[in-house]
Write the structure tokens for this entry.
Amino acid sequence: MYTVAALYHFTPFDDPAALRGPLLSLCEAEGVTGSLLLAREGINGTIAGSRSGIDAVLAHVRALPGCTDLEWKESTATDQPFGRMKVRLKKEIVTMGQPDVDPRAAVGHYVAPQDWNALISAPDVAVIDTRNDYEVGIGTFRGAIDPKTESFRDFPAWWEANKDRFHNKRIAMFCTGGIRCEKSTNYLMSQGVEDVFHLKGGILKYLEDVPEEDSLWDGECFVFDGRVSVGHGLKEGPHELCHACRRPLLPEDKTRPEFEEGVSCHQCADQTSEADKVRFRERQKQIALAKARGERHLGRRSA
């Protein structure tokens, strides 16, 4: 059983590049895999490994400048959910493309999972899912508004086009682990919205803490690792990933005529050229050959 830790923390790093090498070396030495992003605004990512390996990496991260009060969410996976370890340097640890947004200055009101149901059931509250369309497609809170955005960069434009719908409404926002809402609530406050709330710890914390019989969550929660989705109690869900478009699939979706392993699914079959499909088939062939040799093919894009 692998321990999976999802974390983020906004804190100023003067030189993120200097932090990359030691962090990557420690992860590799401890057999920890996953993906971590470093930027001047902080750190974000998900890692998986043994209990001792995760503890070692978390201790290292907490020792970074301004990270003493780091919070993270843990779950488990039966199989290693990542193929390798990546530590990347980015301009933002979650990309919104709004340079004036600063979660360290102000964010919306945090709402604990046990208080979330009462808030989103109130008639004067509009509930907005800040995740991407394919994430919302496999699960969301009852009554939540789906902006149908393809990336988080699209959210400000969506809000500008739809803000009049929410006049005299309190706004409750949520995302997978909470990081997007740190920026989206700060953005709405900068746009003059006063009553802004967000789910502390995100969907993952809600699914962990709120009993299924009391839950207002329908479906599964997409996660960016090999598990693809989790449900109540953070149990691994039934979804797999289309390795052509990176969207989630249910087992029955693999019986549809558009599905070809590693090449296409019903969501992307008409979005790639025949040349793309030829390339994908060759990649899939190499993956199969590597598997037959008992190796892992690193050409497959891991989550």
About this structure: The CA atoms of residues 62 and 68 lie 5 Å apart. The chain has a mean pLDDT of 94. The longest strand covers residues 2-10.
